[in-house]
Amino acid sequence: MNAPIVKVEGLHKRFGDNEVLRGIDLEINEGEVVCLIGPSGSGKSTLLRCVNLLEEPTEGTIEAAGHDMTGPDADLDLARRDIGMVFQQFNLFSHMTILDNLVIPQRRVCKTPKAEAVETARRLLAEVGIEGKEKAKPAQLSGGQQQRVAIARALAVKPRLMLFDEPTSALDPEIVGEVLAVMKGLAAEGMTMLVVTHEMGFAREVADRVLFLDGGVIVEQGPPSEVLANPQTERARSFLHRVLHPAD
Amino acid sequence: MDAATTDAAPARSRMTARQRRRLARGVQYAVIVAVVAVLAAVADWGRIAESFFQFDIAADMFPEVWTSFWNTIVYTLLAFAFGMVVGVPIALMRVSEFAPYRWFATVYVEVFRGLPALLVLFLVGFGVPQAFPGIQYPGGVYGQVAIGLGLTSSAYIAESVRAGIQAVPKGQVEAARSLGMSRTRTMVTVVLPQALRIVVPPLTNELVMLTKDSSLVFVLGVTTATMELSKFARNELTDTANATPLLVGGLLYLLLTIPLGLLARRLENREDHR
């Protein structure tokens, strides 16, 4: 078996007195789709953000996409090209056109020649189903369209690994599907994905492995058929019950 | 609703809320009319017209006044350009991770925001040349003005731009960093362009302030060719012993500042709709 593409060991993260992550060990293999689920405040997003060092770990080591992220000589800018990230709030560059959102990162980060960057941008926008919006500004697009552009933008610098931080939580229910469809397509192409989500349907269908986090530790993990259908711990059971039957 | 109000306050007169409001407004109108009437009756209109509305004196100011009008614009723009060139880097230092930059920028802003513009102008015009004999400002008085007014302006501009930088959502920075942009690259490509857009309205106001502050330039000792609007109007006032030049000068200032003010308000509204 290949070396894991993500390797987290003994990860702790404290914000002041608040210890959000209390010892996380995690390995993700190339091509694997891993969903992080758990109640709010369980540390899912913090764990995700530690993988590309948007949050600096208090303790522990992280290797991702072949880079020693926590090492003394880590070149984070270089490493982050290999680790795409999609945010809950999309975070498209609001002063740039849709096309420039994809072109400028390639030009500035990878020094891609302009013609090639534009070509890549057009191809990616077509792949996520955004067409005829090249000259529009992000604010003119719907949330679902913005998030699909954000996925395309992350892909523009050719990452080997994609992090998704609650990518559909800011969307109206009826447009969640269009974003999930793009993510499914990406998973089918073999992209390694780490996804923080509340979409249990997506986790069940797409994930190779589901991690249930609570109180800053991984409480339970395994294939979705086990963790989601037959949770072993009381905490996971009650969480899943609340998520799947919110009206009860 | 009305019934409830009257029930709650039976001591009040039997007027409804609306009637009370109408009465209050009527009283205010009456007061205003009375004040205007008294002023009109008391004022010596002939005297006022003689002091401020002498058409031949006003006409005599032209076309020479245009030189000073033009100088006012040039001084303002020079000071603003200097203020931007210095103010933006100071703003960047204010938000720097490197503490000495922050300290320097904080001291700079506090000093030049705290000192009167007039005093800074004196320092540049007379203090510095005395301390460093032989110093030559590029462009003579124009260079002195650019620096003298620009230093004060740069402190205000730096504070506006810093506020603009901090108003850019954190997510924009995170997105840029997650794509592999360095801190500097992120600042130049993502944060500053958005920050400058945010601060266009306050910077337009700064331009209005500078237009008026350009009237301080007279302390540097100016010639007819380098005179700005206030000095010109004051000279005319002395020459003619009449206040009409002040009125003309004032109107010319408003010709500059009112459009700028309107522009600032329009830009502010545009930002709201974004």
UniProtKB/TrEMBL annotation, chain A:
**Topology of the protein relative to the lipid bilayer:** Peripheral membrane protein
Catalytically driven reaction(s): a polar amino acid(out) + ATP + H2O = a polar amino acid(in) + ADP + phosphate + H(+)
**Subcellular localization, as worded in the UniProt entry:** Cell membrane
Does the record carry NAD as a key word?
no
Origin superkingdom: Bacteria
Checking InterPro entries in the record gives: AAA+_ATPase, ABC_ATPase_HisP-typ, ABC_transporter-like_ATP-bd, ABC_transporter-like_CS, MetN_ABC_transporter-like, P-loop_NTPase
Entry GO terms, CC: plasma membrane
* GO MF annotations in UniProt: ATP binding; ATP hydrolysis activity; ATPase-coupled polar amino acid-transporter activity
Alphabetically sorted, this entry's keywords are: Amino-acid transport, ATP-binding, Cell membrane, Membrane, Nucleotide-binding, Transport
- Work out whether the entry's keyword set contains Transport: yes
SUPFAM superfamilies for this protein: P-loop containing nucleoside triphosphate hydrolases
Which Pfam family name is an example for this entry? Answer: ABC_tran
**Which residue intervals define the domain ABC transporter in the entry?**
6-240
EC top class, in one word?
translocase
Tell me its family. Belongs to the ABC transporter superfamily.
Which protein, by its recorded name, is this?
Answer: ABC-type polar-amino-acid transporter
Organism of origin: Glycomyces artemisiae
Q: What is the lineage of its organism?
A: Bacteria, Bacillati, Actinomycetota, Actinomycetes, Glycomycetales
From TrEMBL, chain B:
Q: Which domain of life does the protein's organism represent?
A: Bacteria
**GO CC, any one term:** ATP-binding cassette (ABC) transporter complex
Pfam families attached to this UniProt entry: BPD_transp_1 (PF00528)
What residues form the membrane-spanning segments?
Answer: 27-48, 68-92, 104-128, 245-264
The UniProt entry's GO biological process terms, in alphabetical order, are: amino acid transport
Q: Which PROSITE patterns match?
A: ABC_TM1
Q: Tell me the leader sequence span.
A: none
Which of UniProt's keywords are assigned here?
A: Amino-acid transport, Cell membrane, Membrane, Transmembrane, Transmembrane helix, Transport
Chain ranges of the ABC transmembrane type-1 domain: 69-264
One GO MF term on file is: transmembrane transporter activity
Q: What is this protein called?
A: Polar amino acid transport system permease protein
Kindly list the organism's lineage: Bacteria, Bacillati, Actinomycetota, Actinomycetes, Glycomycetales
